[in-house]
Amino acid sequence: MTDLSVDTDLQAAAPTVPLIETRKLTRHFRVGRGLSPKLLHAVDDVDITVDRQEIVALAGESGSGKSTIARLLAGVYTPTSGEIYYQGRAMSSMRSRRDRLAYRGDVPMVFQDPFSSLNPAFRVSHGILRSLKLHQPELTRAQRIEEAERAIEAVGLAPASDLMYRYPYELSGGQRQRIGFAQALAHKPKLILADEPVSMLDVSIRIGLLNLMAELRRSAGVSFLYITHDIASARYVADRLLIMYAGHIVESGPAEAVLANPKHPYTDLLLGAVPDPRAPLSVAVEGDTGEPPKVIDPTPGCRFRWRCPLVVDVCHHVTPTLRRLGEGHDAACHVAEPDAGTRATKP
Amino acid sequence: MHGHIEAKPILEVRDLTVEYDTGGDRPVVAVDAVDLDVHAGEFVGVVGESGCGKSTLLFAIAQLLSPPAAITSGSVRFQGQNLVAMSEKKLAALRWRDYSVVMQSAMNALNPVTSIGTQFRDAIMAHDEDVADDRPAEVLRLVGIDPIHLKSYPHQLSGGMRQRAMIAMALLFTPDLIIMDEPTSALDVVAQRSLMVQIKELQQQLGFAVVFVTHDMSLISHFSDQLVVMYAGQVVELGATRAVFDHPAHPYSKGLLDAFPSIRGPKVPLIGIPGSPPNLADPPSGCRFHPRCPEVFADCPKIEPELYQVGAVQARCLLHAPRAATAAEPVQEVRS
């Protein structure tokens, strides 16, 4: 393990199996106590695939369940029902410590807040070295340091031999987040779960980290699940875009297609919220004051119906499922029209 | 200075300098000789990266600085009175009533162990003002929160509602000026947009002026009248918001404008602004932006630029210096 080149063996071995796939992934949380136990449906029946060297963006508001998906994929939460398949293998069948460790090395996570995700009492290389020791116990101390330097240089921090001995307070927010990526990169990952990695950073710094993600995909062959509420940055880096609302995926498709021709009214709402100085002056945009509902013991029906401008009768009774409405482009909406020439079917 | 000559500004900041005494040889100059005018009912946006001094500027205007930060020169005239020279007792009377401050993190700014209504009443009692009993309910309704939440505690509200409650509190006495320090930065884009629309509507309805600090230039593009771009403690560009957006004169403003991807038009690779803001304890010589500037030339490290008039805006960039100031004159002494 001395370079970051793409692991070609695995690609050749399983060309058709997606890198990671979820089927009917569901996670509920118990809320309320005693005699009135209730279930919060954080994630319901979510099907996601991420292919090799693909960047998939998962976009939605606070509370829509996007971080819960990341934690399910990272193995922090166990699913209430449904299954996660990693390279075709069900995660529930990975029971040994060795399997679990290998999975966590392959699918690491980068956290939102670079100010609290690094231990202030240790040098920034501490986390990288510790996880190298855990995942690759065969390495000597010198080899670990060499590996850590390589990871730190791969995320654009130079000189690594100096930076790795600094403490977190000595680094800027952008540099700290790069350390977060270096930590994820240390053991040749296949998929990095990036949970809002740039939302705590200055706008001027963000683009550098988005570019870093694109660069790591190219140079290290990593896939990304990029979780964000900023659809403009999702467009910038992602190949495919998933829009999430109240625990459901409501729209998915190639990023450009979803943005050019949004099918779900919620996607329209998200797009309308993006501040864009290049757009003509129009303060008249409706101030939507709604918020995603907390989905507690839901009844059937579209979860967006209370905020939806296009709501019709059927929305109150039937939960819409994803329908194919264009080339690789699905939406879960009763009202959405398919592209010309595409027949609306359940995929 | 902004071309508004018709009315006297309600807030005039002149030559304001704030230093942090670090105990070292030289203090950190976080705000360096800043001039700023805010007229009645105007929305002034202050943008810049973390550490450029924008929040320190707000705190200095509101007289909320605490040691080691101190105003070392300059004046802040609010409705004709110099706040810098004012006693704490007089300031306490002005705060909330004539100007109020909305802080960045509502979760930290609201008291977690008392209800929203109690906190509103505290502010009213502190001012001993004759305020109608239903004023707290009225301001909550103004920001679109059901008055039933007067009984709620901060943790029971969502992030967007907490920020709205903070703004409602700032509106209790219908002040003339509201100072906002990144009130939307903890919110997602949808909540952010709706809060901005709401602030603008309230402003049009009630006529207060706003000084709004943010690092996200795109956020205020449709809302602010005047724009002030700060870098390393200095104002580097100011002018009407549209003018700055359409024809940014300073390379730093251009960089900020090009730093975020768009959802429209062709997808272009962006680079942002390479490097990071300078250490204010030891700012670069000459133009403070020169180490990161894509248009840097020989004079930049040697000459400290002033604010030069460039069309409708003012910019602190030697590219726009009158010719006499650069080529002809001998090189000035460099601060080292």
Description:
The complex is a heterodimer of chains A (about 350) and B (about 325). In chain A, helix 8 (about 205-220) links the parallel strand 7 and strand 8 (about 225-230). Chain A contains eleven helices and twelve strands. Chain A has about 350 residues and is an alpha/beta fold. Chain A has helices at about 10-15, 65-75, 95-105, 125-135, 140-155, 160-165, 175-185, 205-220, 230-235, 255-260, 265-275; strands spanning about 20-30, 40-50, 55-60, 80-85, 90, 110, 190-195, 225-230, 240-245, 250-255, 325, 330. Mean pLDDT of chain A is about 85; it is low at about 1-15. Helix content of chain A is about 30%, strand content about 20%. In chain A, helix 4 (about 125-135) runs parallel beside helix 7 (about 175-185). In chain B, the strands form two sheets. An eight-stranded mixed β-sheet of chain B has the order 6-7-8-3-9-10-12-11, with helices on both faces. In chain B, strands 2-1-4-5 form a four-stranded antiparallel β-sheet, covered by helices on one side. The model of chain B is unreliable at about 1-5 and about 325-335 (pLDDT under 50). Chain B has helices spanning about 55-60, 90-95, 105-110, 115-125, 135-140, 160-170, 190-205, 215-220, 240-245, 250-255, 325-330; strands spanning about 10-20, 30-40, 45, 70-80, 80, 100, 175-180, 210-215, 225-230, 235-240, 310, 315. Chain B has a domain at about 10-240: Rossmann fold, CATH 3.40.50. The chains are: A alpha/beta (about 350), B alpha/beta (about 325). At the A-B interface, helix 7, helix 8, helix 9 and helix 11 of A face helix 7, helix 8 and helix 10 of B.
